[in-house]
Amino acid sequence: MQKTLVSAESAGWEWIDIEDPTLEELQFVAQKYDLHPSSVTDSLQPEHLPKHEFIEKVLFVITRFHDPEAHLEADTIQELTNKLAIFYNRGFLITIHKFPVPFIAEMKGRLEEGGWSMPAAGVLIKLLKASLRTFQRPALKLADELDYYEAKIFLSRKVPSMNKGLYHLKRKSAVSRRVIQLAETVTTGLTLEDFQQTEVQDLKDAFLLLENQYEEISESSNNLINTYISLASQRTNDVMRVLTIFSVFFMPLTFIAGIYGMNFEFMPELKSRWGYPGVLGAMVVVTGLIYSWFRRKQWL
């Protein structure tokens, strides 16, 4: 569906927004605005990563924004983010996307309030900033999840199974960071005199700040996973230690009981009045010696 958000009569430049485009719509727009065929092809690929290129006086930008409707277990670039393709020239701005983009409608409203005074270059930078802002709330949510898992691991007496949750946390932070890193390279293409370099630098700073935030979450999640694995291994070792101690205590007792349970005909102890209490006493002495040895080795 094609809509004209800004007309040349009102602002001196055009803004064409195309949602879920057909091939015929793109071919018509490409012919009208002299867009390069390879760029048009890239704009149709929903899985395309952020990029920029300058072809025949037209700046082509692909960025990605966080999908507000992504399901809880989404952990790939395609599941977590949606693509936004932008063609820019002083005389026009063309945005192409498959799914609705909330900040495009917000941008149009700001243009109307400002009397259509903002140039196309300024709108492009605002759109890139808006796409970046969509990653801020997910970053805060991931940080809260990180705190939750950290408290569960260190404050709970029994560590619950969190392999799946920690894995998705790590994947989401790593994927979002990767998208932001790729989208940051787009700012290197904003070198034309059309763009105010103060705004471009502000955009770069915003990218860097959010990238560092996701990097911190990613590193913390990695550390938490390693800690979780170490604690799980330690608890397994504690269980094995208890089982080993019990087996060490019962091995000599089982040996003694096994000997006197063979019922040989010539076993004088079996006919002795004190044979049974003597064997029990021997078991108690052996158990005491093992206990004393464990205490001396500080294994108990």
TrEMBL record:
Keyword tags: Cell membrane, Ion transport, Magnesium, Membrane, Plasmid, Transmembrane, Transmembrane helix, Transport
Entry's transmembrane regions: 242-262, 274-294
Gene Ontology cellular component list: plasma membrane
Gene Ontology MF terms: cobalt ion binding; cobalt ion transmembrane transporter activity; magnesium ion binding; magnesium ion transmembrane transporter activity
Residue runs in coiled coils: none
Alphabetical list of Pfam families matching this protein: CorA
Superkingdom of the source species: Bacteria
Catalysed transformations (reactions): Mg(2+)(in) = Mg(2+)(out)
Family, per entry: Belongs to the CorA metal ion transporter (MIT) (TC 1.A.35) family.
Protein name: Magnesium transporter CorA
Organism in which the protein naturally occurs: Rufibacter tibetensis
